[in-house]
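User: Structure please.
Assistant: Input sequence and predicted structure:
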Amino acid sequence: VVVAAEADADQRGDVEAARRAEPQPSGHALAGAAAGATLLMFVDPNKPGNLLPKCPFNWLTGLNCPACGVTRMVHALLHGDVVAAFHFNAVMLVLGVPLAVWLFSRWTRDKWTGQRRTVPKPVGVAVIAVAAVWGVARNLAGI
């Protein structure tokens, strides 16, 4: 019985150690987002020869990926132009921005409360399905 209890304790300790060792989102993500937003305040992705990288999917295939236009969309939003942001990537503006806010609020609440929850699987499936449909539709329609 004592051996089983010690094995249980060792196993729980290993689980706790594994949880602590897992990569956790941190302020680095926020710092990266702030740096990107600051860059987009001063660099216009609509101008040729800007410092920003081109979409690798578009460069390789000539097609627009589901996220093509997001850099221009964020630039437009940072400058208060919601109509232009909608033009650059309507799906990401209407669905992606609220999803990002929801994910950030979940992460923040989990950090404050010490909880550790995963994103529900249907959310991931929906994101993949919408991205696939949008990626095909925008290329067929020439958007």
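Helices lie at 2-21, 27-42, 56-61, 70-78, 82-88, 90-113, 121-141.
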